[in-house]
Design a protein that fits this description.
- The protein starts with a helix and ends in a 15-residue tail after the last helix.
- It has helices at residues 3-44, 51-54, 59-69, 78-90, 108-113, 115-120, 137-140, 156-164, 211-223, 242-253, 271-288, 309-319; strands at 93-99, 145-150, 188-193, 197-201, 227-235, 258-263, 292-294.
- The chain has twelve helices and seven strands.
- Bound molecules: guanosine-5'-triphosphate and magnesium ion.
- Guanosine-5'-triphosphate (GTP) binds at residues 150, 152-158, 178-180, 182-185, 203-204, 263-264, 266-267, 296-298.
- Keywords: GTP-binding, Magnesium, Metal-binding, Nucleotide-binding.
Length: 334
């Protein structure tokens, strides 16, 4: 036997075996790596998201929330809600006036001029007005007003747009100008709704507001005879702040009737946490004797509709002394 040949053969078969075992090792290693990766992937992969768990749709709780926090108030019947909705959906909404000073609010300087006659109603020897009154007709027959009050960026202007946009529309009409910049609204701005009532948007307090704006709003709240109800808006994301509590005290001290409206409910991801904060404020909220409403003016994947508007519309109607079933004197042009 050729020893040399045998060695070469053995050497070749050794290389061959080594190569085979290397390949086997590679295959085993690759398999292990693949299964390891799969295991790793299965461990690190996110659990399947159950929509209702991770992003609870606040809509589920709107009605329950309303019932829970408005114990002493009767719930309006569905027919009443529908009828008031019909009013707002069909009413023509018009911007009417802005005022940077209280005396610029229509009727206020006239009222100052005729204040004595208005108080005493004693005949006035001067000019007679149409309808044979001694006082200008608009002062006797002013439309009822409701005001939206709240911190800058609480969502006042957007809520006004939400209220006056027909429910059939997906995007809001921009009747009042809104912005993501806090302190956007600088004056009192009034909008006539169907010639039956007015909604007054006010400058926000807090960030980017001025003392002059604050004084104007306070004077309007205290002295405006037409003001039927004030709606204090609180961002649900932020809850009550120091300034909000001061405003509540101010309204209480001056006998200004008001309701509380939580805005931006679509931003609440954890309704239980929100309720805990409500629980913390419960005593305080009860002491205000105000109704507590919950709304969202923006929609998202988890909050597909604009909720809370029908009940807010109803409360506004009721505050103004208007009866469900009333048709707007001025309808939207078709
Ligand atoms: N997600 C969400 N955003 C809202 C809602 N309401 C208002 N916003 C947003 O909040 C921001 C402020 O809204 P505005 O309506 O301008 O707030 P405002 O209270 O009028 O603010 P000032 O005029 O500055 O006092 C805007 O970017 C709105 O789009 C809501 O319900 N949900
Ligand atoms: Mg505004």
């Amino acid at each position: 036997m050729d020893y040399k040949l045998l060695r070469r053969h053995l050497h070749q078969s050794f290389i061959c075996r080594q190569a085979i075992s290397n390949i086997k090792n590679i295959v085993v290693a690759t398999n292990a790596a693949i299964s390891g990766l799969a295991e790793l992937r299965s461990k690190s992969s996110r659990p399947i998201r159950h929509k209702t768990q991770s992003s609870p749709n606040p809509s589920v709780n709107f009605r329950d929330l309303y019932k829970k926090y408005n114990n002493g108030f009767t719930e309006p019947a569905v027919a009443e809600l529908n009828s008031v909705n019909h009013f707002f959906n069909s009413a023509d909404v018009k911007y009417e006036w802005s005022a940077g000073r209280f005396m610029d609010v229509p009727g206020e300087s006239l009222k100052a001029k005729y204040s004595q006659q208005l108080e005493t109603r004693i005949g006035y020897s001067g000019k007679k007005f149409p309808g044979k009154t001694y006082i200008p007709f608009e002062l006797v027959n002013g439309l009822p007003e409701v005001a939206f009050l709240g911190k800058s960026n609480a969502g006042k202007s957007t809520l006004l747009n939400n209220l006056t946009t027909s429910q059939k529309r997906i995007s809001l009409e921009s009747t009042a100008r809104s912005s993501r910049w806090a302190g956007f609204t600088k004056t009192l701005n009034s909008f006539n709704v169907g010639n039956e009532l007015r909604i007054v948007d006010t400058p926000g307090y807090g960030f980017n507001s001025s003392i002059g704006q604050g004084d104007l709003t306070m004077q309007y709240l205290k002295e405006r005879k037409e003001l039927a109800r004030t709606f204090l808006l609180i961002s649900a994301e932020q809850g009550f702040g120091e300034h909000d509590l001061q405003i509540v005290d101010f309204m209480r001290d001056n006998g200004i009737p008001f309701e509380i409206v939580f805005t931006k409910m679509d931003k609440i991801r954890n309704i239980e946490k929100f309720e805990q904060s409500m629980e913390r404020d419960r005593k305080f909220l009860q002491s205000t004797m105000a109704r507590i409403l919950f709304t969202n003016s923006s929609t998202s994947k988890s909050c597909k509709k604009r909720y809370g508007i029908d009940i807010l519309r109803y409360v506004i109607f009721e505050s103004c002394g208007l009866e469900p079933g009333l048709k707007p004197s001025r309808k939207k042009p078709q």
